[in-house]
Fold:
Amino acid sequence: MGPKLNIDVYFDLVCPWCLIGKAQLDRARQRLAAERPDVQVDVTWHSVQLVPHVPPEGWPFAAFYLQRLGSEEAVLRRQAQVREAAMAAGVRVNFDRIKVFPSTRLAHTLVQVVQERQPAAVEPLLDQLFKGYFEHGVLLGDEAALQQLARNAGVADDLIAHALGPAALPPMFPGVAGMGVPLFAFNGAHMVSGAQAADVLVHAMRQSLDVN
Structure:
């Protein structure tokens, strides 16, 4: 058996930097696979709700970010920064389509249940959730929307019903105080914070493999 690389990713579905970070991680994993095909890579996705007390119906997106950043100018600057980083990572962010800042409790529950019971579908599901929200403005707090995105990702219908049912719903997904996302941990030792370029992530992967 070849060397193993365990990657832990802490993320929130409404964080554009997590969308970008996942895209860069995908690139980094492709590069590592090309140069080290003997390495077995396992990724675990850890849900974090950065704003855990959003009501089920969500908040108006524009008003939320205006309050968070303080001025229209600051919002425009941040959105331009995000769009530029997204384009460089090969993903799209259409802020004009996002009308609601949602509660992600149901969506995170879906991710965690799928990761546990149908792990091959968790990354297609994450791609559907990120693309649905940031590219098309899909409301991630809406059960019907989540059902459709999960089906698009190939998640089994009975698993979707279980994940979105009351029995599966945890209280919330808190992070550690002061934690920023995305956060990547490689073999429990090398940490990379933020939506870093694929080069940075590949370097951390190599270091982790050299240590182990």
About this structure: The CA atoms of residues 94 and 135 lie 5 Å apart. The chain has one domain: 4-211.
